[in-house]
Amino acid sequence: MSKLSQIIAENELSSLLTKNYMGLELEEHRLLKDGRISRYPYPAEFLSRRHNPYLKTDFADNMLEISGTPTLGTDANLANLEMLQQLVTDHLQADEIIWPLSIAPAFSKDDLDFAGSFNTRFWMAEYHDYLQQKYGTAREIFTGVHVNYSINQTLVQSLWDFGFNEDFATLADFKNALNFKLAQRFVLWRWLFTYFFGASPIAGNLPSNLPRDLRFPVRSLRSSSYGYANQKGEEITYDSFEEQLAQLKERIDQHQFFSMHEFYGPVRLKGRGDSLADLQKNGTERLEFRSFDLDPFAPARVSPAALNFLELFLINALLQPLPEKPAEQLKLAVQRNEQIALQHPAEVFAWVKPLAAPLIKQLRATAAQLDLPDKYAKSLDLAEQRLENPKLTLSGQLLDHISPQGDLLEFGLTTALADRKRIAEYTEPLAALKGKCSASLQSLIRQAVELGIKVRLDQRHLHLQLKEHEEIFPIHVTFDYQIGPREYLLSLFPEVLKINNDQQ
């Protein structure tokens, strides 16, 4: 038994292994109903993209970035994301849709040029122009899901107090080591996540770095070295925390990277601040897993099965040791991921099942040992089915929808229109909160999100917060708005228009 497992067993900490916060970020394109890029401006009702914690844009103004409030449990996280999806969809123009795939459809040269210049975030103009020149617009308009994950802080502190304070000079050092271990485990097995959840089999707009002999469809162009990745020769390794920070510092100091934000690795360590120095001084607060393609078959664009599998994988990863000679294994894992990502979705390498089956068995044992809910076992059942039949993977399912012309335009448009119709038929202001609070309180939450006021909903109260100003409401309160929920919020938070202003 490892020291970590021994401390957990001796101090009855196992219940904390499953109480980890997740937070989901989603990138997606606003397009027109014929697949062309939408040139409508960003909805003015959403107020500030600079300060709103939930609603922003990415490389282009039509490229939405929505972020759910971090919370416990996959179900609550998916509800947060679906709530934001409803809100955004309700603000679309009549001829707009939300594109459901990581790969945008083939744009005309005029549309692609427009996408490259469609950025009104003046505070990001220099970085935007740098990325466009270095990577190209076609590369920068890939979209996906980012999963943020925080190890339970009580567990981290307890592990430190009950023994790891003997092995590390500071708590920050221990937090970095613990989180980096999970990052390494994910990179070691990234190829399996790409196999299960890769969903970018074709390229609508060809990045300039694609080799001429690359044949489509593939499993996940976005997950390959030609997708959401740094340029060849500028890759950052995961051999050790110290080496990774040194590599990042060297890239930035030599102006190979604009900033640490240019690190496009599959998982990033995030601290309280926004610098490498802060990460070293205060330690890692969360991990950001960045290699998930949008799932067009899931309403939230990421499925419960994917999140449950990831969560169980990370719980198990905390308990398991790293392999011997991890640097060699990590290098091999990168090669395997490239092979898997660029493989035809209906094919599977002979080595996949023999390597994956023992991990699935180990995950089942961990789930049983911790007496985890049945949803985790079901995610493993699906994983085993997909190992047997690659056509059950996301990219395998997409094969049937690729047109004779080699695109997913019809499938994407049909899916997007069906999503818009489904959301239009909701009878609640926020359908994900149906039965949890009144319709009038849902309307208040909607307006708070649009204005950039932080929202926290517990079993008894709704908490609204803007900097140090907090307002609390009973969860079952019903409002009879005389001036409307937005105007009511503005009367409570008159400072919001000044604080959440892109000019500030």
Describe the structure.
This protein is an alpha+beta fold and 504 residues long. 43% of the residues lie in helices and 12% in strands. The chain contains 19 helices and eleven strands. It has helices spanning 3-10, 74-90, 109-117, 125-135, 137-140, 153-161, 171-188, 190-197, 241-253, 276-282, 304-319, 326-341, 352-369, 374-388, 394-398, 409-424, 439-451, 485-492, 496-499, and strands at residues 21-32, 55-57, 63-67, 71-72, 96-98, 145-150, 267-270, 286-292, 454-457, 461-466, 469-474. The strands form two sheets. Strands 1, 2, 3, 4, 5, 6, 7 and 8 form an eight-stranded antiparallel sheet that branches. A three-stranded antiparallel sheet has the order 9-10-11, covered by helices on one side. Strand 10 (461-466) and strand 11 form a beta hairpin. Helix 7 crosses helix 10. The longest helix is centred in the middle third of the chain and has 18 residues, at 171-188. The protein is globular, with a radius of gyration of 23 Å. The model has no long low-confidence stretch (mean pLDDT 95).
